[in-house]
Amino acid sequence: MTTDIVEVEESTETGPNRDVPLSDHEAQALRHLAVALGGITTTIRSVAYKHALNSSHAMQSLEETEDALTDYDTLARAAGRKQPKAAGDDDRKGDALAREAAAQVSRVVETLSFALEQTAKGVPVASTDYVRQVVMADSQLTELIRLIPEAEYTAALKQIWGRDALPVRLR
């Protein structure tokens, strides 16, 4: 699939379910897709590092991707036959930011996939089109970080880095 560089339109949808944590069913679907994406990205890295296209490093990751997509397909088909039960408070996964965080992560990944497509087309990394995609992904990642409430973010940074702020970026 080939996609030209596009600017991803940000959704401004609001609704009664936007701030509701994920149901078990939705969390399971996202888990399957995340595993599939992990397998694909591992395979991309394998190709980038000149592993043979049929190397075990690449093929095992693709098998995990195939299994995860099969599991997602099974889940989706079951959901099409019957609606999953309404999730009660005990059935919810994550917090009220889980949906927005998942959507924002997907925006970052989608934008970076456009940069990978540019690489595959032979576009130089220093080209305007490539840099545009990378800068846009960086901006989207910043928005993801801004979703995290300040107190929790600072506490996590202190636990990870031993200080209240990230090291300063040079760019």
Task: Give the topology.
Elements: H1 24-48, H2 56-81, H3 98-120, H4 128-147, H5 150-161
Helix pairs in contact: 1-2, 3-4
Explain the overall architecture.
- With 171 residues, the protein is mainly α.
- Helices cover 62% and strands 0% of the residues.
- It contains five helices and no strands.
- It has helices spanning 24-48, 56-81, 98-120, 128-147, 150-161.
- Helix 1 (24-48) runs antiparallel to helix 2 (56-81) and helix 3 runs antiparallel to helix 4 (128-147).
- The radius of gyration is 19 Å and the shape is globular.
- The model is unreliable at 1-15 (pLDDT under 50).
- Strand tally: 0
Give the low-confidence spans. Answer: 1-15
Order of helices and strands: HHHHH
How would you characterize the largest beta sheet? Answer: none
Provide the gyration radius in Å: 19 Å
Q: Choose one word for the global shape.
A: globular
